Amino acid sequence: MKFRVLGPLEIRQDDGEPIPLPQRRRRELLATFLLHANEPLPGEALIDALWGADRPRSVGGSLRTHVWSLRRVPALNDRLRTRSGGYQFDVRPGELDTEEFERLLREARAGLGRRRTLEAVGLLEEALRLWREPPLEDVPATPALAGRVERCHAQRRAAQDLLIEAELNLGRYRQIIPRIRELVAGDPTHEHYWAQLMLALCRSGRRAEALAAYRQAHSILTEDYGLEPGGELRRLHRMVLAEAPELDSLPLLASEALTIETARIVPDQIPPEPTDFVGREAETSAVADALTSARSGAGVPIAVIRGRPGIGKTSLAAHVAHRLRPLFPDGLLYVELGGSSAPPDVGAALEDLLRGLGVPVSTIPVATTGRAGLLRSRLSGRRVLVVIDDAAASDQVLPFLPGTAGCAVLVTSRSRLAWLPGARTVHLDVLSRGEAVTLLRHMVGPERVDREPEVAGRIVESCGRLPLAIRIAGARLHTHERWPLSTFADLLAMGRQLDQLSAERMSVREGLASTYTGLAEEERRLFELISLIGTPDLPEWVAGLLHDGPLVRAALDGLVDQHVLRSEGVDFTGQPRYRLDGLMAEYARERVGEIPSLTRETALERVLDGWRHLAVLADQRMIRDPYYAAPEPGGAAAVAVRTVPAGVIDRVVADPSRWFSVEQANLQAIGEHACAAGRYRAAAQLGAHRFAFQYLQGDTGGITSTWHQISEAATAAGDLSLAAEADVRIGILRAEHGEDLAGLQLFERGLAIFERENDHANLARSLSCVAYGRHRRKQYVSALRMAMRGLEEARRVGDRNSEYLSMSVLSAVMVRTGAGPTGMALCEQALDLAREIRRPATEVFALQNLVQTNIILGRHRGAVDAGRHGLDLVTGIGSQLGEAHFLFMLAAAHWGLEDYRRAIEKFVRARAIFDRHRAPHMEIKSLLWLAVCHQERGDRVQARAALEEALSILRPLGLEHDAALVERAIMDGGVVKMR
Predict the structure, then answer these.
(1) Sequence spans of domains, the chain
(2) Class for domain 519-595, per CATH?
(3) How many degrees, rounded to 5, is the angle at CA 832 between CA 828 and CA 837?
(4) Closest of 121, 129, 78, 74 to residue 100, by C-alpha
(5) What is the pTM of this model?
(6) Identical fold at 2-157 and 862-972?
(7) What is the DSSP string of 764-798?
(8) Edge-to-edge order in the sheet of strand 537-539
(9) Tens digits of per-residue pLDDT, 445-464?
């Protein structure tokens, strides 16, 4: 099998029979594979090669279709292999003309190095005969293919240069003149070709023609391009005019002379390695491994360090280069392209490298292609590491690539350089927290960091663990040597972090601005709107609502490619997820003011509605909490079908708890943003649909934060009923956590507003909550009155759940006031009502009341039986706090049975759950009961330890009276009397 790309694309059987491939896409795909033969190609690179920016909507399916059609060609099927995320096309030695060309060129260079010039000429002629130019002339050119094709052209020019100079060395002046004239006609700006032509003419005795050639070159360069001939041509012109005898013995114009002249020069251009370089062990190893394959002789290895501005790409490149210095004895070259800020002057950069290799300025070609060819010639046979800093595109790098094995290339870039042959990319992320703190220690000194280690952690997190930002923070702190770290940490926490992260010529904002400038218009708008909603991350469907267009995936890909967004994988609903870090978000918010307010409001409304609609669907399938009925969806479920992909809806409905778990941080953030934007009622609707899940998960902090913000926003707007509802929800959690007084105050405040506003929907529940709070405060008379009112109001409005709540409080008050049998009867009646309602969480509450009633009445065996049943039920619905309460009551029942071992085991388990869910009052009660149990067993050491733990929790809470009681118990060797 033969594959030919150095001309029209051809495939031939071993017998020379051509294999037709008429379809355009098949030819483009095969051409891409052949130019990357034996290399794994990711699907995204193939998509860029075939479609570029004009990709179809279902581009992944289209690619698979074209690959399948290529596999239908029998001769190609076994060549095309699937690789992770892409494909690889296998070509065997001798089958592909480009590989044959490169092999012959390598052998010719080796022959010239060994002074076997005649043999080298034969190899070069054989290599050039493979060309039917131009390469792939029947395959449409795409930017992705152009880089590889240009590399082929560059190698051909290098072969032509070598052949001419070898022929001149052999004295074949007359025979070589026609070939040089063809090259001059094809590239009249290539001054080295003119010099070769002049030398060949002069040595053939055609001095007048040599001078005419110079005049022609001078005319073309000055009149068409405004350039004076370079030093090589001018020097040769002077020698011809003077009939200098050196003309007959002049070495090869820019080849052997330079080889002799530069043999002793070993460039060392790498910038100094930063003295505060920290971490990056894995990345250093990956880059070093990629580059040291230069020792195998199997081509030129290329490593690309890719990352966002300020991430430390250049520092890592310098670190690796210095580490690998012994492996590249012929030198280290460095070129700073600055391609991310402006188009680089590649020609000037090539000149700098050539001069670094000792090439005289007078012999450096004018044209960029000539300079690139000369660089390859100079690097041939050497072991040099070329470091190219800040390249923006693959075509900026191609002119600097050596042509033969032995050298290696290290590139840094913000962009995905998909078309560098065989390049291995190492993605650079922010530092770990430990590495970031270590860098700050280098900047400000270990003493200051060791004095305030937690504050140092806050600073590096505020800097997003971005090396540039940490260096700037360190510079600011170094300037203010007497500042404690907390002063600067507080400045960062106040907002406007980008204003603080600027020092001298370093600025995080400038790096972000350069990234922003490089974005397409659609990408900029999406970037700004994502920052507007303020969620920690987002699934793709949210971006679709913000972008309001079919090209959202392309815009997201562009933002990921430019390190604006971080790709976070795919969630369980099948949605790609993305994250915007804090500094990026702040910069975007600075630009949001440029978006019309109506556009901002509409985008926020669409996203808020999307989250709310999914929350409605998920909440409809959740186990209800014991306080609230399912909120009315208000048609939101139907709207969700129109705003969110059907696949997402199906998965949310199938596993609502998982969806709530995944999206809690986003739901919290979007609710906060809605309150800040004045849409507190929408935030309340979202919060109501989250409440059941949060309650059963024990998410006290999330519930409290959500409804506190809603209460503040509603109060500011004069919406007192909603503010009161928010207070009651918070009070429920406070009371369940043992904060009886705080809960009662919130209940009573809400009750007053509901009565004044005639809000009967909330009145019955509020009365039962006030009754519970007063019962816990031993205000039994008023508790009984409130429970009776609550029972009456609940029955009047048909709220059976509130009816149960009031009945359960009524039973507890009866038991506490000595009416045990009546209380037990009411307790059992409340349990029957809870079971009629068919709400597991309400039945759990009823069982808790039954256990508590049995304990008060001294029926500890009955309490254990009811407690075990309740524990099974609460575990089944997944309420961890409910599990802790049952464990606590079971422990108390075992204590009553004098089974202290079981009591201790359950108090310990309950305490651990209360600790995990930040319920310190219940945690303290568990510890005090543990002290009692240990004391009963005669274990004063364990009893004292439990009291000391309780004291350590009491003091930060400011409960001085209780703390004093515990301190006295510790001193007296006793325990706190339990109620």
Answers:
(1) 2-157, 187-251, 281-427, 433-512, 519-595, 598-718, 720-857, 862-972
(2) mainly alpha
(3) 145
(4) 129
(5) 0.65
(6) no
(7) HHHHHHHHHHHHHTT-HHHHHHHHHHHHHHHHHHT
(8) 537-539, 576-579, 566-570
(9) 888 988 889 999 999 898 88
